[in-house]
Amino acid sequence: MAHDAHDEPTRAARLLDAQAKAERLFAEIEARGLVAPGEGERAVSDRVRDLANELFGTTRHWHKRIVRSGPHTLAPYRENPPDRRITADDIVFADFGPIFEEYEADFGRTFVLGDDPDKHRLRADLPRIFDAGKRYFAEHGDITGKQLYAEVERLAAEAGWELGGWHAGHLVGEFPHETIDGADTESYITPANDTPLRRTDKTGRTCHWILEIHLIHRPRQFGGFHEELLTL
């Protein structure tokens, strides 16, 4: 990997290619109806893993594969709720981190089963708030993790939702990326990160970021999730 570590155009292209594959994977999840009432979360997760292998050859994942439904959609990443059966009127999100040719993708999308208007509104707000956050990042050259988190939190509140996590994204790159340590706030888009997001890492490479939008409706105990590349 070291030979092209400083070739930024190649690196950017590989990260975008990895994301395009993840996007195709998620389009196939929808097309094949893998997220369906009566299915267990774990069974859906395993089918998505098998689908990734079918589409792209054996795929490794750099973080645990997540499929969460109903009240489990409130749980932050680090929690491991027990398996749950998806119901007819559910909201479900999937968060996968496949590795394609040594480059990480990190992709999350939300599926709504049934016609609950609140759940549909939340799902519609996820990409809209993601796009608004990405625009805000583009317009502010020296933006810090703290400032972007605050803006995402503001956008969520304005739409009537809370943020579900302590951060709104993280560094991404080649696998294995610099170990993201929970204490290393500079690796996250979080209120404690006062460093500019546009910077280079310890090896002189451009930092690339994933933006995560985790919106929750606490009174009704559901949430949704949307994530992809912020910086490319």
Account of the protein in words:
By secondary structure, the chain is of the alpha+beta class. Helices cover 33% and strands 20% of the residues. The chain has helices spanning 8-31, 41-56, 117-139, 145-158; strands spanning 60-61, 66-69, 91-96, 98-100, 103-104, 107-112, 162-163, 169-172, 208-217, 222-229. Helix 1 packs across helix 2 (41-56) and helix 3 packs antiparallel against helix 4 (145-158).
Topology summary:
Blueprint: H1 8-31, H2 41-56, E1 60-61, E2 66-69, E3 91-96, E4 98-100, E5 103-104, E6 107-112, H3 117-139, H4 145-158, E7 162-163, E8 169-172, E9 208-217, E10 222-229
Antiparallel strand pairs: 1-4, 2-3, 3-6, 4-5, 7-9, 8-9, 9-10
Global morphology: globular
**Terminal CA distance:** 20 Å
Number of helical regions: 4
Poorly predicted runs are: none
CA gyration radius, whole angstroms: 17 Å
How much beta, percentage-wise? 15-25%
- Tell me how many strands there are: 10
Mean pLDDT across all residues, rounded? 92
Most strands sheet: 4 strands, antiparallel
Quickly give the structural class. alpha+beta
> H/E series, N to C?
HHEEEEEEHHEEEE
Give the % helix. 25-40%
